[in-house]
Design brief:
Layout lengths: L2 H6 L13 H11 L3 H6 L15 H13 L3 H21 L13 H9 L7 H22 L6 H17 L2 H7 L3 H13 L3 H7 L1
Length: 203
């Protein structure tokens, strides 16, 4: 899945491919001097041609995360900037409000926007990316405790936090505000049943 399709919020899981909204596709084709046939190739798929194969949202997110984790941080930021510029240009050409969907970007991609190391993202884009990162944390916590708040569910969530922290790049930890102390406190919830982490998160 391309960053462009994720940011634009117009991706489809049908046939394991990503598609661009027909209006955006036509605008892009015009911008890039492509033919109408090329525009049709990236438009929304015909339901009659569905081969029955689908990929879950979680699987798509995991694939994007794994892919982005392999990229150089600066290169990833450049790719996001290019994707955003293409999206805004297409929306403008289509007479649409110029906005982007950051919700489904990987944590590393969002971190590239939040940290803005190349000074290439606007304050509004940074704010949207940080809100999306925070929303990911809230959703993870809600999913872990949907069966009720218990020491067991909190310990399970803390174990997930430790695993996430260990797998994250330093840049993503910085963007999330997750320090080594935060990781150690999460580990204590697992080993000692301490709830200090959640006091810290709620402060």
């Amino acid at each position: 899945m391309s960053l462009w399709s994720i940011i634009s919020g117009n991706s489809s899981s049908q046939s394991g491919s990503s598609y661009i909204n027909a209006n955006y596709a036509a605008a892009l084709a015009k911008l890039e001097g492509q033919s109408k046939g090329a525009a049709a190739a990236v438009a929304a798929p015909d339901d009659n041609n569905d081969n029955g194969v689908s990929i879950s949202t979680d699987a798509q997110a995991a694939a994007a995360e794994a892919d982005d984790n392999q990229k150089d941080f600066g290169d990833l930021a450049d790719e996001i900037r290019s994707s955003l510029d293409m999206l805004y240009a297409a929306e403008k050409a289509a007479g649409k409000p110029q906005s982007a969907n950051f919700a489904n970007l990987s944590g590393r991609a969002l971190s590239a926007v939040v940290l803005n190391q190349g000074d290439q993202f606007t304050t509004a884009e940074q704010r949207q990316a940080k809100a999306a990162l925070d929303q990911q944390t809230r959703e993870d916590f809600a999913a872990a405790t949907q069966g009720g708040m218990s020491m067991s569910s909190l310990a399970s969530y803390s174990q997930s936090l430790v695993a996430q922290y260990d797998a994250m790049s330093p840049e993503e930890r910085q963007a999330r505000g997750w320090t080594e102390s935060f990781r150690d406190t999460a580990a204590k919830v697992i080993s000692q049943g301490s709830l200090s982490l959640f006091d810290q998160m709620g402060s």
